[in-house]
Amino acid sequence: AAGVIQSPRHLIKEKRETATLKCYPIPRHDTVYWYQQGPGQDPQFLISFYEKMQSDKGSIPDRFSAQQFSDYHSELNMSSLELGDSALYFCASSLGRGVEQYFGPGTRLTVT
Amino acid sequence: AQSVTQPDIHITVSEGASLELRCNYSYGATPYLFWYVQSPGQGLQLLLKYFSGDTLVQGIKGFEAEFKRSQSSFNLRKPSVHWSDAAEYFCAVDADSGGGADGLTFGKGTHLIIQP
Questions:
Q1: What is the spatial distance between Cα B72 and Cα B25, in angstroms, rounded to a whole number?
Q2: CB contact at 8 A, A87 and A78
Q3: What is the per-residue pLDDT across A5-41, written as a single tens digit (0 to 9) for each?
Q4: With A41 labelled, which of B39, B84, B89, B108 sits at a CA distance of 20 to 30 A?
Q5: CA distance B15 to chain A (A)
Q6: Dihedral Cα B52, B17, B37, A95, nearest 10 deg
Q7: Is B35 on the interface with A (CB under 8 A)?
């Protein structure tokens, strides 16, 4: 079965640079979620979109923004990167809201 | 705000032995409850979920979990573990349980070690 696709899988950036992470949900899924998982930590919810509209907002820094496009894929844009932004970034998708979320393999971002 | 507590940071179990991982949540109503498993450097795989109805839910890979409202618990069990079960296990809550695309709140995770 098709799963959530994230790209790139690994990304290395320097401080103060920008990064864009992409997420392609499971076909027919209309809801996308973004999470950040620091080393040895639990995933922290950042933001979600339903039918291309922002639905819920968690602990997303002001330096980050995200959107969902007409084909339901989503992009997380990160600016003025800091060392503390180094983490695994997961995208999850669901069919509708309030149901189970399926996670992608993650993008490992390293900021040097 | 809702919270999830996984009291055991590490658990070591012998292969073939039974397993129980604990999860307690703090929320006024009955939330949606999930267990996810994560292998090192990998994504999170959904093991099972509880929305309503039968309080004993079956999941993949031989796992089950029981929702106990009186104890605000949702413990994960497996009758006989395999070496491939070694991983990080996360309990998660969707506390809105309504119509929003809410983010999940995760516990800190339990690291399961399997002894031969």
A1: 6
A2: no
A3: 999 999 999 999 999 999 999 999 999 999 999 998 9
A4: B84
A5: 25
A6: -30
A7: no
